[in-house]
Amino acid sequence: MTSPIIPLIDDISILYSEPKLDAARARWADLVSQFEQLYGRVPDFIARSPGRVNLIGEHIDYAGFGVLPMAIENDCLIAVAVDHTNNKVQLANVNSKKYPTLEFTPKPRQEGYVSINPEEHVWSNYFSAGYRGILEELRIEQPKGMLCLMSGTVPTGAGLSSSSAFVCCAVNATVKAQESLLEKSKMPSAHELAIISIRSERYVGTMGGGMDQACSILSKPQSALFIEFHPVLKVTPVFFPTTQPPIAFVIANTMVTSDKAVTAPVRYNLRVVETRGAARILALALGIPIPASGKLHLKQVLDAHFENIGYQAAGKTEAEAEIEKLAEMTQIVERVLGTEEIRSGISFEKMCELADISKDEFTRLYIHQQIRADTFHLYRRAKHVYSEEKRVVQFRDTCEKSMKNQDLASETLFSQLGDLMNASQDSCHKLYDCSCDELEELTALARRAGAYGSRLTGAGWGGATISLITEDKVPAFIAYLKKEFYAKHYPDLGGAELDRAIFATAPSSGAATFVGR
Ligand code: NG1
Ligand code: MG
């Protein structure tokens, strides 16, 4: 059997940088041949979605604020053959020892097609979430059967968004497989697919903000992506100026895994709830009416406040005005939430009392998944969010200015960007409590090894760091961290495994489906 997809493997050079291309070609070819062995037929197409690394803007997407990630070369591939004879779904993984095969016959649409139990942490939940989310959106009654084989190279639990790469890939694979059931005009746009993927991942049980799915689906080659969420999802590519030596980013994984789905009640989802509590109390203090839905986040508070006071940005650029507003919001946080009573944390009861809402109503509005906490830290969380967004605006503005005015000395540019990344790490550590010893150690070592800036990326509590350095220094930088961090903490880690833990990354492009010709 010769797959019509094989010739396409030549075209994947747009997805991976030169040093990684041979290995990528071998992996795609292997996926196709394993597919043939498993299902006795060739796949109809391969869907691909990349992971991402967040350059700056951590834990602020769910507060409505803009973030600046970029897609990476590590990705999720799903090879698919559409089965026109029945509606059964089979999903196997090339690593079948670690990831058992999922098989199901979809339930009726009204019953959500497939059961997903967020309490049961199985790898295939992410596929099921994407499959269910897109079929619900398209209101498909009789989905076509799908034979699927997945291959993933985004490390799991590393903050590089293996989960969203998988959900987005499942969404893309499913929509492509069902395309014959849809009128052309009903095919969702990439923008719609991103929104559907954001919603879909919530079936797995995290109250995520949307950065990862938007980045995986909407990234453009050679650039990072500025993503705004409020009032609507909007993306703008951000380019780095050509400098000599060129700018480079290195990802280094602490190898401490933090599975967000497992720890959500005490970490991720708790942070979402703390920022919601803070938003309500700030709104009350500023005389901002709570919307009829009862829901609001910290970005809405900022917008409403500056509208209330009739803020005029006269003579300022958009970025300058934004920075001024964010600085003022941190002052307001200081005044309203930095009081003796609230500053060092409050109980759930106290939070509801100050937010002028009953415990039941608060739970109904904001706590969709279980939360376990005695103390809620509204002051430090809100302070992080507003100051982090200020850094995002500054980072983006610095890149854009230096694109226009290429004579900004590259040393100055790198230092400015690096300082913002370091300040972000500091805030994640001290205000957001989402760092850990290994992240602190690794980012400190990275700076010692010459990084202009180094910070955790993704949700934190483990996972990877991202460091800004120049291309000429990458080999020495990697060698230093291998010696000073990996050899000490993980003496058994070597060869290809070690190279998967620490590597330079280039911006990749967003999700796509590859069909044979
Ligand atoms: P990770 O842990 O990398 O999946 C999560 C969220 C993001 C964002 C970051 C923190 C999901 C799918 N991802 O990323 O939306 O909030 O944490 O900045 O929930
Ligand atoms: Mg994730």
Automatic annotation (TrEMBL):
Residues covered by the Galactokinase N-terminal domain: 34-81
Residue span, GHMP kinase C-terminal domain: 414-486
Entry GO CC: cytosol; ribosome
EC number in record: 2.7.1.6
Gene Ontology biological process terms from the UniProt entry: galactose metabolic process
Methyltransferase as UniProt keyword: no
Top-rank EC class of the record's enzyme: transferase
GO molecular function, one term: galactokinase activity
Pfam families assigned: GalKase_gal_bdg, GHMP_kinases_C, GHMP_kinases_N
Domain GHMP kinase N-terminal: 131-219
UniProt pathway: Carbohydrate metabolism; galactose metabolism
Catalytic activity of the protein: alpha-D-galactose + ATP = alpha-D-galactose 1-phosphate + ADP + H(+)
Keywords of the record: ATP-binding, Carbohydrate metabolism, Galactose metabolism, Kinase, Nucleotide-binding, Ribonucleoprotein, Ribosomal protein, Transferase
Similarity section: Belongs to the GHMP kinase family. GalK subfamily.
PANTHER family listed in its UniProt record: GALACTOKINASE-RELATED, MEVALONATE KINASE/GALACTOKINASE
Name under which the protein is recorded: Galactokinase
Organism expressing this protein natively: Lobosporangium transversale
